[in-house]
């Protein structure tokens, strides 16, 4: 039993629920392959898994999947979180989406750590054609929405309720909401040579005002210092 099992068992005990029985090898293979690749295991993968599923096999007994399939399914999951899609009116062109999606797939294929990938996204600058992660700031251009999406996608925090009043069920205040949004007010955008491309750059400043106090908010991390 590892530490995750201990936490799960403690939660089950608190809820007075009995843990499910161990899954069979066939069920385990099916579930984990669908989770990792989005597809059912092939007959070859099934046979290989059963042959290596012995006490002596150790790590070799785990199901394997093609790198390309793994990269594509996880790039698709990230694309959904990051709102990678075209927009009416040509704000985000098919070329932008194609480059952005390919960049995501390459990050996963090359085992780029998630924290590094997020740093590259949030700190990106340059043309949306030449530097694909800059499309993060093109798929959504509203400062408050960018801040909300960033908090929810990368920190699991829903700040939307603090836009008009202090959050009724969480610690976040309106000052927290607008101070965090102040980071993204500094993102500049200008037209590239190609009408479909935007140049993303650091404006070196930008204001966000708390609509109740009328105070200009300084950038501050959620739960952190200014």
What is this entry, summarized?
The chain has a domain of 135 residues. The protein contains eight helices and three strands; from the N terminus they run ααααααβααββ.
- Helix coverage percent: 40-55%
User: Would you tell me the overall average pLDDT?
Assistant: 87
Strand order of the largest sheet: 1-3-2
User: What count of helical segments does DSSP give?
Assistant: 8
Approximate strand percentage: 5-15%
Question: Helix/strand-derived class?
Answer: mainly alpha
Low-confidence stretches: 55-65
Overall, the morphology is flat
Q: Name the helix and strand elements from N-terminus to C-terminus, one letter apiece.
A: HHHHHHEHHEE
How many beta-strand runs?
Answer: 3
Rg calc:
23 Å
Distance between the termini: 42 Å
Summarize the main sheet. Answer: 3 strands, antiparallel
Please tell me about this protein's structure.
- This protein has eight helices and three strands, in the order ααααααβααββ.
- It is mostly helical and 226 residues long.
- It has a domain of 135 residues.
- A three-stranded antiparallel β-sheet has the order 1-3-2, with no helix packed on it.
- A hairpin with a 6-residue loop joins strand 2 and strand 3.
- Helix 4 crosses helix 5 and helix 7 crosses helix 8.
- The chain is flat.
- About 5% of the residues have low confidence.
Annotate the secondary structure layout.
Blueprint: H1 3-15, H2 25-37, H3 43-52, H4 67-81, H5 94-109, H6 114-122, E1 126-127, H7 143-155, H8 174-184, E2 187-191, E3 198-202
Antiparallel strand pairs: 1-3, 2-3
Helix pairs in contact: 4-5, 7-8
């Amino acid at each position: 039993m590892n530490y995750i099992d201990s936490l799960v068992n403690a939660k089950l005990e608190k809820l007075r629920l009995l843990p499910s029985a161990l899954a069979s090898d066939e069920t385990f293979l099916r579930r984990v392959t669908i989770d990792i690749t989005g597809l059912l295991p092939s007959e070859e993968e099934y046979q290989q898994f059963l042959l290596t599923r012995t006490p002596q096999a150790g790590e070799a007994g785990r199901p394997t999947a093609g790198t390309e399939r793994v990269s594509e399914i996880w790039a698709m999951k990230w694309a959904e979180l990051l709102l990678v899609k075209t927009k009416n009116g040509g704000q985000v062109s098919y070329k932008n989406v194609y480059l952005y999606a390919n960049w995501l797939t390459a990050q996963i294929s090359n085992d780029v750590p998630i924290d590094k990938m997020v740093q590259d996204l949030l700190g990106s600058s340059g043309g949306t054609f030449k530097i694909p992660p800059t499309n993060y700031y093109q798929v959504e251009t509203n400062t408050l929405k960018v801040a909300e999406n960033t908090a929810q996608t990368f920190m699991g925090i829903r700040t939307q309720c603090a836009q008009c009043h202090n959050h009724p069920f969480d610690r976040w205040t309106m000052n927290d909401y607008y101070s965090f949004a102040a980071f993204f007010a500094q993102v500049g955008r200008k037209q590239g040579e190609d009408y479909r491309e935007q140049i993303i750059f650091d404006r070196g400043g930008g204001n966000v005002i708390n609509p109740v106090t009328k105070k200009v908010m300084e950038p501050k991390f959620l739960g952190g210092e200014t």
